[in-house]
Design a protein that fits this description.
heterodimer, A: 204 residues, alpha+beta, three-stranded antiparallel sheet, two-stranded antiparallel sheet, 5 strands, B: 248 residues, five-stranded antiparallel sheet, 26% strand, elongated
């Protein structure tokens, strides 16, 4: 709270009055008030800037985790696209497909009679909605679990197959998780995705 | 006095502009995140919808029942030497084609039947958790030459590739949940994805698609199967995709 001060005129004028401000120029109090105000404003700016910078850094960290999850999703989709039955039991390796790529739909399974019958039998086995019990796609499930989940190839995103929610079409229900340390503590970002390996479209 | 006021005004303006700039940046970042969640919901919706039509229970619909007849409850499909009326819960998948012991995996689903409606459309909103929802806006069929398949009289070909286009809207809404009656609650973010699939016929319980080897015969005749063996249609691979977004 400002107190009025009594000013004495240096010009010899005896008249005086109560005032917070000088008639001409600055009073001694005004620079002090301005200084205090400036200090308060400056502190506010600095704290606002800091808190905003923290918030921006936090948003960037969350955004990066989200991008990591989408990278992991792309890697999983590409792996699923490569998964084939040119080798008994199913594999993500393309070497047994005779140089052809399963992407074109021509070689998701071997034309060898025994292998194609094994593939058909594997497809028709009741997996009871468990990915590890689905003979047609379980090797893809194991590959994702053992070779991709929490590995550098997917920026350490944790990939979990929750279940095979529709066994008749071999559809995986998956969860992607990334835990990050932020300025506001540890956060875990989760996303759910469905995946159907293209090879499943060649199942009966 | 004037100088102090000017100083205060300058400082205040600086604070406000700084705050606006950083808040806008955070808002945009948050908006992009929400849009990504809406897009994920739409893409998940596409996978779920295409696979719904690929379920054994619904595989024969696209090639046996014109789209406009899916929900009329009076269209019959001849199967297993019987006529079966197309409606949810009915089984038109012939017995020689079945490969799992469960009866429920062969029952036509309402989710599939709802996709065909355009007059009026039935756009059920499905919750996929995490504030993400999706709804199918529509499906359409075109022939191998991309000419339209009549919704009232025609079906997908039994001896050639057709194309199936599915349009799905993804919704992200953390506050009020969207519903079929009100799919656009305040502050919800929407993203629409349209994708075209190859619709390929094959004889039921077979792993090969005759059209892949150039066959132009009926899918079952091509593999010498007759009687209760019937063609089925699988929505396969992506031949075209389009993304466009809508904001609410």
């Amino acid at each position: 709270m400002l107190s009025p001060i009594r000013r004495i005129s240096l010009k010899g004028n005896k008249a005086s009055r109560l005032s917070c401000f000088a008639d001409i120029g600055f009073s001694l109090l005004e620079p002090v008030v301005a200084g205090v105000l400036m200090a308060v404003f400056f502190t506010q700016i600095v704290s606002l800037f800091n808190s905003n910078m923290k918030a921006v850094a936090f948003a960037n960290q969350i955004d990066q985790a989200d991008r990591d999850i989408h990278l992991a999703l792309d890697v999983v989709r590409e792996t699923a696209a490569k998964y084939n039955w040119c080798k008994d039991g199913g594999t993500v390796e393309l070497s047994d497909c005779g140089g052809r790529r399963p992407y074109d739909g021509a070689s998701f399974y071997s034309n060898n009679n025994n292998l194609s019958q094994n593939f058909k039998n594997a497809c028709e086995k009741d997996s009871e909605t468990k990915a590890e019990k689905d003979d047609a796609t379980k090797n893809l499930y194991f590959y994702i679990r053992d070779n991709l989940s929490e590995k550098p190839a997917v920026n350490n995103v944790k990939i979990t197959v929750l279940q095979m929610d529709s066994k008749e079409i071999h559809r995986f229900k998956m969860k992607f998780e990334k835990t990050i340390a932020t300025t506001y503590g540890t956060r875990t970002l989760s996303r759910g995705f469905y995946l159907i390996p293209p090879v499943a479209l060649w199942c009966p | 006095m004037f100088v102090i006021l000017m100083l205060m005004l300058t400082v205040l303006t600086t604070i406000v502009s700084l705050n606006t700039r950083t808040t806008a940046g955070m808002f945009i970042s948050s908006w992009q995140g929400k849009l990504r969640l809406a897009r994920d919901a739409a893409e998940n919706g596409l996978v779920i919808s295409a696979s719904e039509l690929n379920k054994p229970s619904n595989r024969m619909l696209l090639g046996s029942v014109p789209l406009d007849k899916w929900r009329t409850n009076d269209y019959n499909v001849y199967t297993d030497w019987n006529n079966v009326t197309v409606r949810a819960g009915q089984v038109i998948y012939p017995s020689p084609c079945r490969f799992l012991p469960n009866w429920d995996v062969y029952q036509i689903t309402q989710e599939a039947l709802n996709m065909s409606s355009i007059n009026p459309p039935v756009r059920t909103v499905y919750d996929s958790d995490n504030g993400q929802y999706y709804r199918v806006l529509g499906i359409k069929l075109t022939k191998a030459d991309r000419s339209p398949v009549s919704r009232s009289t025609e079906t997908a070909a039994q001896n050639a590739v057709s194309y199936l286009t599915i349009t799905v809207e993804g919704i992200y809404s953390l506050g009020t949940a969207p519903t079929t009656a009100n799919p656009n609650p305040t502050n919800s973010v929407h993203y629409t994805v349209q994708q075209e699939y190859q619709l390929v016929p094959r004889c039921c319980r077979q792993i090969a698609y005759p059209v892949d080897t150039g066959s132009t015969a009926n899918a079952c005749a091509a593999v010498n199967l007759y009687g209760a063996y019937k063609p089925e249609w699988i929505a396969r691979s992506t031949s075209q995709a389009g993304l466009f977004k809508t904001n609410q």
